[in-house]
Amino acid sequence: MSEIFELRKSRVVEVFYTGGDVLLDSKSETLFTACSNFVKVLNVQNGDLKYTIGEAEDESRATSFAISQDDSQFVVTYANDLIKKYSLANNEATLDRQFRGTHNAPVLITRFSPDSSRLATGSADFSVKMWDLKKQFCTHNLKGKSVVSAMCFIGNDRLLVGYTEGDVKLFDLENKGIQPTEWKIHTSHISTILPLTLPGNAPGAVIVSRDRTYSILNVETKEKLKVIPIFEPVEDAVFLRNPQNLLTVGEEGVLKVWDIWSGRMLKKKAIIGKRIDTVLYREATGQILCVTCDQNLLFVDENTLTMTKQLSGFNDEIFASTFLSEKSNCLVVATNSPEIRIYDMNSWSCHLLQGHEESVLSVDSPPWDEFLFASSSKDNSIIVWRLRDPSMKLEEEEKDAEFEAPIKVAKVAVATGHTNSVAAVQFSKHKDKPFILSVSDDGTLKLWPIQKILTHFGGESLKLSASFTIVAHHKLINCVEVSPNDKICITGSMDKTAKLWHIDKDTMNLGIAGTLSGHKKGVWLAKFAPNSQNVATCSGDSTIKIFSLLDKTCLMTLSGHDFAILALHFVRNGNKLLSADSGGLMKVWNLETGVCDQTIEAHEDKVWHIELIERARKDDEYVTVGADGKIIVWKDVSEEVQLEEARKRAERAANQQTLANFMDQEKYEDALMFALDLAQPFHCLTVINHLTHRGETEKLGKVLKSLSSSQLSMLMDFTAQWNTNTRTYNASQQVIHYMLKTYHPDDLLKLPGINRILQALIPYTNRHYERLSKLKSDAAYLNYVYSRMRLD
């Protein structure tokens, strides 16, 4: 019997925000984000997905959504003019109704009135429509002169609307005959409108615009009180705990706090070098949420304006990952972007690391340093990074840091010299005379000594020089892997071969050690076995080959994938092998037999990398990343599965013994009820067959009288299953017979699920009746023939 190896998903990090609206509930515990045709609802603390709002059949994109102040109602608008209203309760969204918005263009903004009785939808067709949610019809059609860009209720009866051309209108919803008041204060897009209580409790509003100013209006007297310059195109603004303090965000990626009346800047903090589109604030938690133009969510402390956490809403395609160490507990991820993503696996906060100019293709970390890692990119360069050890204080780096971040990383060294994209990079396995190997689309393999970076902790980054360069293949090289003893390495190429190279650590040179051939398409990855002198290669020909390093012969070919195999990893000390293909499937192979033990549907697209996470006091975990933008953490639950199987075996043995004891003591009622309590049809069938064989079927009627309605329903369900088989139908018919003798049909029709059970019973019962009738007729005919042939 082969050793059990079982993987189970323990965490999935996937796309949850693709641009658009972002909302927090009133308690700041739940986050609502737009994700294509869905709204995803997440836990604010760790980013876990609670549930989704929307249907998979909805092909149209969600354009806006809003939540009522009591968190009980939720409205989503779609690009096809559909509006859906949901009720929120118990981590679930229930669709109440859906209707057409009758707009001529997509709805861009949606707002609930303070008492949640009205809904305003602002569209790109220059109009705002007001909906009475109780009476379920449109009450107002409010027209403007340009696209609606901002809306704000002033009480329940008045609505301020801002437009992209800078004008603002006030609509009185109770008096339709009154013409709307219009202000032409600004010259550009109105970003947001905030309600403001003026001195004397008069209703007012703050109008923030991209024309680098904000204005204060008295809604009651319709007068403009102030226009104040803020010298930045503002995208969004909120009031902080003090209603006199206005927080603005915009193109500079800087948080600015202003005194609302004087226009004096009270505080300023740069948190990111990109445009911030949205800012949210909840006084209860004192936490600020900023949404950037590249779908990243930044959580900022209200008092210090420093970033406390960051969530990445959209990773795009993920090419590679590497786990640094248990001490840092960070996962470094390379995506189709110049930015490297570093995930804190405790909170799953994501830090974006800038340094490359084009997409990062590969990342790797050495086993001998807990904070060092390297990245390679399409910009032909390699960068070595060092994650900040929390116990270290590097004053030089503190001064040079442009933005404060929870995860701090320093650029240690840069290596240039390749003339094309650097496809893969790998560290040596040992700290003694360390090096980095890199392969490129230019067909070269380079060796970089890195002894001098071991003592480099701050200041200007070092410039690495390659000690050896060789044209390793004539086509693109996809991978490079170093052996566990640092004496040999292997490269895989699109020329259908994998090549072995000797590593001389004294001279830091490489020498050819052999060629492994046999694949019919390009080699995507190669891995050294940890417990033998073998190496595994995977290819676009959908096969895995195990080669011997001693004589370079192919020992085994593993076939079973239907797509190109892109990732490999030895597990269980090399006795098993994990593989993943471009169709998203992952397979577990037993290398003793060459048989696939298990197939797992891992991703929805290509799986580019499998990473092992080793922890001292916990079970091993594995991380897979792919083209679907997902990061999936798999937990090794083999021991749990074995314990559970052993428990089930012991439980089955105990149940069988208990049932046998009831049967020996002729306690048929107890035996049948015991089998029904276990919901095991086989044990029920055993009791009924025993009564039938002993000719004691009358006792079955007595047993049926003592059963509850749920037990009767379960027994009827089992009966319908037995009735489908000619070997067990007799027990089924016996139960039906005594069931009808014991209970009135009207009582049986009250059993739960009886309609479904009867629909299953009737056709097979008719078939059994026809078969027995024919058998009886055939037997009578045979008897007649026999009697006529008999000699008297």
What does the model show?
One of its GO terms (molecular function) is U3 snoRNA binding. This is U3 small nucleolar RNA-associated protein 13 C-terminal domain-containing protein. It holds the Pfam family WD40. It is found in: Nucleus, Nucleolus. Keywords: Nucleus, Repeat, WD repeat. The protein is flat and about 120 Å long. It is of the alpha+beta class. Among the domains are: 318-636, Methylamine Dehydrogenase, Chain H, CATH 2.130.10.10; 648-781, no CATH class. Helices cover 17% and strands 44% of the residues. The model is unreliable at 393-401 (pLDDT under 50). It has a five-stranded mixed sheet, with no helix packed on it. It has a four-stranded antiparallel sheet with strand order 1-57-56-55, with no helix packed on it. The protein has a four-stranded antiparallel sheet with strand order 2-3-4-5, with no helix packed on it. The chain contains nine helices and 57 strands.
Considering the chains and any ligands shown, give keywords for the structure.
alpha+beta; 5-stranded mixed β-sheet; 4-stranded antiparallel β-sheet; 792 residues
Quickly describe the structure.
One of its GO terms (cellular component) is 90S preribosome. The chain has 792 residues and is of the alpha+beta class.
- Quickly give the CATH architecture of the domain at 318-636: 7 Propeller
**What is the topology, as strand order, of the major beta sheet?**
34-35-36-37-41
Average of the residue pLDDT scores: 89
> Regions with pLDDT < 50 over 5+ consecutive residues?
393-401
Counted beta strands: 57
Shape: flat
DSSP helix fraction: 10-25%
Q: Please give the count of helices.
A: 9
What's the CATH H-level homologous superfamily of the domain at 318-636? YVTN repeat-like/Quinoprotein amine dehydrogenase
CATH hierarchy class name of the domain at 318-636: Mainly Beta
Strand content: 35-45%
Structural class: alpha+beta
Query: Main β-sheet, in a few words?
Result: 5 strands, mixed
WD repeats: 100-141, 353-395, 415-451, 470-504, 516-557, 558-599
Keywords: Nucleus, Repeat, WD repeat
Domain U3 small nucleolar RNA-associated protein 13 C-terminal: 656-789
Subcellular location: Nucleus, Nucleolus
